[in-house]
Queue: 2 jobs
Job 1
Amino acid sequence: MDKLLITGGRPLEGEVRVSGAKNAALPIMCAALLTAKPLVLTNVPSLADVSTAASLLGQMGASVERGDDGRMTLQAARIASRLAPYDLVKTMRASVLVLGPLLARFGEAQVSLPGGCAIGARPVDQHIKGLQAMGATITIERGYMNARVERLRGARIVLDLVTVTGTENLMMAATLAEGTTVLENAAREPEVVDLANCLIAMGARIEGVGSDVIRVEGVRSLGEASYHIMPDRIETGTFLAAAAAAGGRIRLLGVLPETLDATLAKLRESGAAIVTGKDRIDIEMAERPAAVSVRTAPYPGFATDMQAQSMALATVANGTAMITETIFENRMMHALEMQRLGADITIQGTSAVVRGVEKLQGAKVMATDLRASAGLVVAGLVARGETLVDRIYHLDRGYEALEKKLGALGARIRRVK
Ligand code: EPZ
């Protein structure tokens, strides 16, 4: 199994280009199920999760062609199977995003329940509740959600909590429903907006995206479209956190700075000098970072997907920071691994009190999930000596060529067997 070997303690310098957003690419790929016509995507990142989504769509009978430079053409002209099997759903929860499109276009879908997850329980009750409100009959049998409907009809749905993929599933389903659907307490994440813009390009009628009330007027069918996936704001934030922790000066290209307001505010508070352009961000950290507390929240709040990286920054900051996780109940596993690097962290429920230390020391650590891995890589870049990060298949799910990009910034990092 691959591991990452990092020899830390060196500032970062140089520029890198950020990839297309994983969490926009996955729902947008599933949106291809809503039409028999082709969907041509560009800026699709080369990631394990994207390959999993391609296999899932391929198994159903969709054609998936991948070209150079992140180009992908999807066409679900004939769908032989409306099944998302357990084997794929358990490796990637986002597979549940086929439920809304399949049900809306074919009137039936069989999707495995995702089950538990390393970062928390993560139920899908809001997806189910919303589709039921739109007229679907959903039964749970032998671990599968069996959904059926003649034709979905528009409904007013108030989500109990803000859910990103829940909003996406219901928004996709509503595009082909009869009448108008109003989603209240909808997620405002930029990836939801990106999906909506793609659906609109396919002919959907959607208003209010980016706010917490989304209105979808159903249409009979959707057509072909070309769509460019937005840049990955979490990859961007991970590089920014790495530069802030390790010090130095880097430039990130092909980014969307306005999707990173909360992250940029926290990094500035920690002492980083940041200049943003239309599609670039320059960051310079000339001194030891100041301790900055964060509390995760739905967008536009501080992203839970940046929590581990911000904890890594806090481990070497001057002062004490409180990191509070409000979205997932078990997303602090990286804290124990960071302690192996010499970090001073006390967990209190869903908060971590991080007392910054002058130096971390390299050690062997183990990644437990995607963003935990990213946090460990950031910590490894700062730690003196060698850090070996195990189980980096988690990283490959969501970061394209991370070690190559960090290498281009002068980090000593390589993949080892
Ligand atoms: C999305 O997951 C992202 N994944 C996650 O990114 C991200 O951490 C998360 O949103 C929060 O921003 C994709 O976009 C593919 P939620 P999602 O539904 O949609 C509870 C990464 O590292 N909930 O917004 O699954 C849930 O348990 C990943 O890239 C219900 O109770 O998250 C959680 O506490 C990890 N019932 C909260 O809502 C439901 O029906 C928010 O989860 C749905 C969710």
Job 2
Amino acid sequence: MHNAVRFPDSFLWGAATSAYQIEGSPLADGAGPSIWQRFTHSPGLTANGETGDTACDHYRRWESDIAVMRELGLNAYRFSISWSRVLPNGTGTVNERGLDFYRRLVDGLLAVGIAPNVTLYHWDLPAALDDRGGWLNRDIADWFADYARVMFRALGDRVPMWATLNEPWVVTDGGYLHGVLAPGHRNLYEAPIAAHNLMRAHGTAVQVYRAEAKRAIGLVVNLEPKYAASQRDEDVVATRLADAYMNRQYLDAACLGGYPDEMREIFGDAWPEWPAADMAVIKQPLDFIGVNYYTRNVTEHWPPSLPLRWRGARQPHAIYTETGWEVHAPSLTRILVWVKERYGNPPLYITENGAAFYDPPKSIDGRIDDPLRVHYYREHLKATAEAMRQGVDVRGYYAWSLLDNFEWSLGFSKRFGILHVDYKTQQRTVKASGRFYSDVIGSNGGALD
Ligand code: FCB
């Protein structure tokens, strides 16, 4: 039987970006440096030494970028605030000129009927706070809450949806355990502390939100179903640990008030006993959970892969993206159903989903055909609809990303945009995937049939 895919009229159709990846002008108008400013300006840490100094120049081109979103028919846009634009030292005096940028952006979006979805922390910690220990300092929960209060007071009446953190797992794993993202630490003993303080900051900011504003606030996590590569004991155990580490660590803390038992198995004596009072702060009622989904992981025990001793096993017949991620849409359905069952059917948004592929040069008539990305979106939007059919309360979807952008330590080499960006001229061109997404939006899913 043919099942036509239709989404509810209230469904949010968005695209997502983050401040450091697109804005450029990181020190303009009184902004302070972030840890990404420092990381990218430290020789040897990013591909080809690339930085976010210019990126997509969105800081100056935001108006025309909104115009393109409108043309595509988006009714939602997820972006993040650069903390050090608003508070150059991380705490203390507000830099009104930095805040004005976000005031204008929010007003510009609302004026054309696009709902802003604002993330407070998408990885660009003020460098001044890193100097005071960053995520390792317990005081950061209060620093973050003070910053959140500034933002809620400035924009709380106009922004319908807030997220505290983007992907705390990546912040910790990349920034404090493996050292591949800012601030570039590789320390087994720091990682659990950074993770816990991220969650304390999350909980404290949600408490502030309840006192200051009354729309919706949630947490954005990245999830990846883990499948055992074999039924050998060591692979099965590695899979359980990998699942706890990535999928359950943060959501169990935020939604259930405790960390999985596996955390001690993974970190040994580097995993402290946490005070019950901290767990009570971390567990706050949330209005939604944001799920970032890119891939699944077939996990195998692999002792050389230190410090965690597991790795993803390559699948011989799969399609892989340019970031080496297997394309596997059924796992999106699976992880959404898993969230529903484990955490009591919370409202969900897919806050990021997308793929980096090599984009061919423009054709003579100026088109950019990216069939693999079109295929990726088609399959993942269908997988979203399938989860909804199974009762998951998915209320919106954000493509990652609106624009090709600065992909962290991988620089500009990985293109995720539904719009192509020519970094020499800053010209934007809608890719075939952007047109396709626009058709899906315009037909409420009809174009997926
Ligand atoms: C996610 C990040 C986002 C981008 C995509 C590809 O983990 O949230 O900033 O880098 O991956």
